[in-house]
Amino acid sequence: MGGGARASVGVGVTAIVRTALPTDLEAIDVIERASFGDPWSLRSFSDSMTHSFVRINVVEVGGGVVGYSVVWLAGEESELANLAIEPGRRGAGLGALLLDAVLQEAHEEGALVIFLEVRESNAAARSLYARRGFHEVGRRTGYYRNPSEDALVLRRDLG
C-alpha cells in the first residue's frame, strides 16, 4: 500500500488506505472489540505485524483509523483473515475501499486467488463480497462462537 489509496467517501471527506503502524494497534483493537463477539486479542494483531507473510492495512478518515484489514499471503494463495469498519462508519463505502486495496495488494504480491470466511448471517458483508466477485466454495459448521454460527467460505480469482 505504501503511500496509500485515497477516495472521497462523502462531501469534503477523504479516506486513505495505508499500511498499519504499531501506533494504530489501539484503534484496531477498539474496532475489533466493537465488531466481533469473539475478537482477536491485541497481542494477535501485534504479533501479526512481525510476520513477513501478513499485511495489515488501515483506512483513515480525518486522521483517525476507522477500519482495518488483515491478509495472509502464501505463494499463489491469500486469505482475508479479518476486515472491520468502525460501527458508526459502516455503509459509507469504507469497507469496499479497504477490500479493493486488499485485492490489489494481494494480486501485486503474486496471489492468484483469495479466500475468506464470513458469517452466514452477515448480509452486508456477503453482498459486498459478491459485488467484488467472490463466490461460495464451502461451509465451516459452527466456525464462529459468541454466537455460534456457520461460516461460508468464499473465493475469488485474482489472476
Can you tell me about this structure?
The structure is a single chain. The protein has helices spanning 25-35, 42-48, 94-108, 123-131; strands spanning 5-10, 13-19, 54-61, 64-74, 77-85, 113-119, 135-144, 149-157. By secondary structure, it is an alpha+beta fold. The chain has a single domain (5-157), classed as Gcn5-related N-acetyltransferase (GNAT) (Aminopeptidase). Strands 1-2-3-4-5-6-8-7 form an eight-stranded mixed β-sheet. The longest helix is centred in the middle third of the chain and has 15 residues, at 94-108. The radius of gyration is 15 Å and the shape is globular.
Descriptive keywords:
single chain, 159 residues, alpha+beta, Aminopeptidase, eight-stranded mixed sheet, 4 helices, 26% helix, 42% strand, globular
Q: Secondary-structure blueprint of this entry?
A:
Elements: E1 5-10, E2 13-19, H1 25-35, H2 42-48, E3 54-61, E4 64-74, E5 77-85, H3 94-108, E6 113-119, H4 123-131, E7 135-144, E8 149-157
Parallel strand pairs: 5-6
Antiparallel strand pairs: 1-2, 2-3, 3-4, 4-5, 6-8, 7-8
CATH homology group? Gcn5-related N-acetyltransferase (GNAT)
Query: Unreliable runs, pLDDT <50, ≥5 residues?
Result: none
Topology order in helix (H) and strand (E) letters: EEHHEEEHEHEE
Largest sheet: 8 strands, mixed
Q: What is CATH's topology name?
A: Aminopeptidase
| Name of the CATH first level | Alpha Beta
Strand content: 35-45%
CATH architecture name: 3-Layer(aba) Sandwich
Helix fraction? Answer: 25-40%
Radius of gyration: 15 Å
Overall, the morphology is globular
Total number of beta strands:
8
Number of domains: 1
Tally of DSSP helical segments: 4
The termini sit apart by: 19 Å
* Overall pLDDT: 93
Structural class by secondary-structure content:
alpha+beta
